[in-house]
## 1
Amino acid sequence: MVTVLTETSATELEAGPGGSHPSDELWLGSTDTAAITGWSMKPEGFCRGDICVPTPPGKADRFVQGDSINVSAFWDLMGKPAVRSADADVWLLGEGANLRNDALLSLQAPDFTLPDLDGNLHALSDYRGKRVLLITWASW
Amino acid sequence: MFEQVKDEDFMILSVAMDADIEAARPWIEEASPDYVTLIDQNHLLSSLYNMFNVPQAVWIDETGTIVRPVETGGSLDIAQEYDQETRAQAKLTYINAVGDWAVNGSASKFLFGPEDAKKRVPAMTGEIALAHAKFQLGQYLRRKGRTEEADALFAECCELHPESWNIYRETAERNERGLAAGDEFWEKVRSLGEKQYYITIDMEGMPG
């Protein structure tokens, strides 16, 4: 069993395909990869929407084997952090600094959805049409 | 705190950067705020907005555009000596500026144009992005009771992103009042030297 986290999701999967891959690599089937990350293999490479990252020439085996995708290798290739627990039973596919910087420099406020104390979810974009003072605090 | 600036076109979205909801709950219930308060257990906002302390604020206009990038939310630095009056004045200056924006919208003199706003966006590094990823993984493991693994990750986060008080204080030991404000904290604050704990903001009338 492996749990794959993204910034907004947690997915529990049966053991990765094959089982013969090193523990510092996260191999997922194409369906799971698409469901969890939104990225999928196309003839152009590893794609989401209009964006495609070509598989490095001559190294296809390191990235794709049959229906299995080395998601952590693609994450590295894209400059995004892929981190794991010591036993490699929990992975987190994070977001990279470049994407964060581009998003903030566009001056479009990054959207998010978070719960209130009663568990009701609120998205920043729910409040479009109002001026929003977004302010943080903490108990600590 | 901001009641005097309420307006149907304006709202305060207050976010508690607390991994432990129960630690935040009494604060939220006591304040019984009539603004929206959300809880960010994984510090997602730190990652999205490159935040590193509380209070930090972002001003977002009706179209979802950032008109004041992330900055200290009206507090003066704790590493420097300010009298109570000056600290109160800083807070009031900030609140009045928010009020001016709430009332005057895009005509407020406190907004930055796109080019000025971009210059004020703090740059994220690969180390910071990695720290946020490890922090979120650590929080997941902590919730699963895997505290040793989580603590090891948090220690790595503090090394990767030493400027983040959010990461340090969230994961540091707390005192009986729930504050991560012991000797080690103050030692870290003192060691900032010329750097500030609360970075003074660029706002007309702001002391400090």
Note: The helical segments of chain B are 21-31, 44-49, 84-104, 114-119, 126-143, 147-160, 165-171, 183-190.
## 2
Amino acid sequence: MATLTTPTTTAESPRPTPRKARHGGLRGHESKWGLLFVAPALLGLIVFLVVPIVLAVYVSMLKWNGQSSPFSGGGEFIGLDNYKSLLTEDQLTRQDFALSMRNTFYFVLGVVPLQTALALFLAVIVNQRFLKGRSFFRTAFYFPSITSSIAISLVFIFLFQNSGAVNGVLSLVGINGPNWFADSRGLFHILLGLVGVDSSPGWADTQVFSLPLWQWIAGPSVAMTAIMMLVIWTTAGTFMLMFLAGLQNISEDVEEAAILDGAGPWQRFRYVTVPMLKPTLFLVLTLGLIGTWQVFDKIYVMSGGNPAKTTLTPAFLSYRVGFIDGRFGVAAAMAFCLFLLIVVLTLGQRFLLRDKDA
Amino acid sequence: MATDTATSKTNASRPAPVGALDREDARQPRWKRVGKRFGGYAVLIIFALIYLGPFAIQAATSFKTSPDAASNPLSLIPHPATTAAWQRIFGLTESSSVPFGRWVKNTVFVATTITLGRVFLDSLAGYALSRLNFPGRKAIFALVIAVLAVPGVVLMVPKFLVLKQLGIYNSYAGMILPLAMDAMGIFLMKQFFDQIPVEMEEAARIDGAGVWRTYWSIILPLTKPGLITLTILSFQGSWNEFTHFLIATSDPKYETLTVGLARFQGSLGTGSQFPLSMGAALLATIPVAIVFFLFQRKFVQGQLSAGVKG
């Protein structure tokens, strides 16, 4: 932080020289200028971020159709009713919300570990000194992260067509690819089917949050898997850069000491590199967790929540319930539940990955 | 900042093999070293195919006919090659029902305005938070950091309410104003200003320059790298922005490339007009791609400082 402006040189301690006196006044003006400089940006942040955050809770307690202003009687204040219908009443809204939570749970469970692992893997490879042209490859891996997610989604829709490029490649190795975006079968259901369990055994018919247990354990649908691949593919580049920065902060002395102690490459990676990358790992996992739970734009373009609602996510459902169905109060309540979940998960992760030596 | 290391420490300027790492490499039998290199390149090339392949297919498909795109999705050579899709995108044919021109105009206008707004307002605020002493400075900086951590999903509905309340829903003002400043940019600029030696300013002030002149003609030119980074990130962010424009407008008049493309895809259903959608998606990618290849290092730098804040 800058320590240029020590308040002792302001007008209250006038110096004898006239020159200094003039400038003492200038220092006094500094607070005026300072406020003037931050004012426009601060006003914008308050109006378009701080006020909405406060309003988020208020709107979630309204019955509001988005048309007339809720401040002049356009919305009805109903307290916690939106939350109640979302969490306790057995009906379609709660079922959709439960479905979206299930879908996103599997989405996060697949994407976060895989994108982290891929990013670390790419970073380690691109960091190998014995390979040439590494900056070219680094650029190639990073490029998808800076392009428009909408444009990329269109490309992946084309690649994952029934007779598209991905199935074309799969057929080269003799695999008959699925009709990705029309396939609502859950991966775990498919696996269970392989061992002969094709439909729900009796015990799994139990309803939990308006959804039978059998549905809860479905796993990500084939359609969702395609979207997961897109997300892993695009975000790994960003995280690769973070790992690269982390790797290059590891002093060579440490690696050399490990070699002299007789550690092989895998041991060095496991016991030297990974522990020293812990801060980066923590950052990447946190950003990944926060980002994946909010997935919205790719769902909007690629699937619209279909097939059979297996790609519905809370963010997309909240958008649809609000902006399409005109139930903005319920939409805000959904968003706020998701927000709380993200906060809890982030704190939980911080607790789990805390530095136990400290 | 430790950010430069990711880019500048490439193959150049490596010393001759003296460290234990290199000795270990040299000690290995020749076949093992060759194998290691071979494996390394094999992995790199496979991943390069996975990462660049989709873009190559995208570009090739935009020059195909619809039946060719559907039946030979993997082929990189259009057969027959046609510019029909591109003619439609640029409005050169009669049947141009899709208003690509308007999308591009809107995107250019909105992205440029947002970028200018951010560069001006973020640097002003960043300078004040870095260098000027005023009451509430620490609290404001804390607020900027706090705002950074808010997940955007919770803001969709209340942002819509604020825009409606201010009477700027469905207007360029509603698209631009909420994005014309951002906490990340303020944070980034503050960091850049923090690195400038205080003596530069003191010299200017002793020479009688006021706060504004010191900022505008002395300090700002010194932060050029920071300003360039912020310009690039703001341009990329606002060019690719989707969610805010989606909730701030409903009139097709205000559709940007992202919103237009997303709605266009929704109306298409499956299986048709892939050359058109691939071309349009490519068009939405190219400007950012050009900026990226020109200023790659700045992207990396910005990306890393964005991460460091977390």
Note: The first strand of chain A starts at residue 62 and ends at 63.
